[in-house]
Specification:
The chain has about 130 residues and is α/β, with parallel strands linked by helices. The protein has one domain: Response regulator (Rossmann fold), CATH 3.40.50.2300. The chain is about 45% helix and about 20% strand. Strands 2-1-3-4-5 form a 5-stranded parallel beta sheet, with helices on both faces. α2 runs parallel beside α3. Manganese (II) ion binds next to loops.
């Protein structure tokens, strides 16, 4: 089965390692960046099929990074999924306003993550 190339932008090493292990084991292509600036650069170079975006990042936060990514040519339709532990009222709205397609709350459920990402990817490709 066809799997997306995922870029995970996350400053926490342990989270990156966990998601990397899970997605590589499931046959996804995996790219990672530890801050927004290098993530945006990598996205422009590597053209991922889906971006997993930590919201709490140093310097440039994930919402700002999402808005910048959306301005890159060809990035209008790449699914960007926000990842955050700050599940509060209004978070979903804020991530959607910034240009995210959806939201996964931390701690990450590694049993569900691969299928969740495939569903976001397929829904976006087929237009919701
Ligand atoms: Mn973080």
């Amino acid at each position: 089965m066809n799997k997306p190339k995922v870029l995970y932008i996350e400053d926490n090493f342990d989270n990156r390692l966990l998601v990397k292990r899970v997605l590589l084991a499931e046959g996804f292509e995996f790219l990672e960046a530890e801050d927004a600036q290098s993530g945006i650069r990598l996205a422009a170079e590597e053209r991922p099929d889906l971006i997993l975006m930590d919201i709490n990042l140093p310097e440039v936060d994930g919402l700002t990074a999402t808005a910048r990514l959306r301005e890159l040519p060809g990035m209008e339709n790449v699914p960007i999924i926000a990842l955050t532990a700050n599940v509060m009222k209004g978070d979903m709205e804020r991530t959607l306003e910034a240009g995210c397609d959806g939201y996964i709350s931390k701690p990450i459920d590694v049993d569900k993550l691969p299928q969740q990402l495939i569903e976001f990817w397929r829904n976006k490709r087929h237009g919701r």
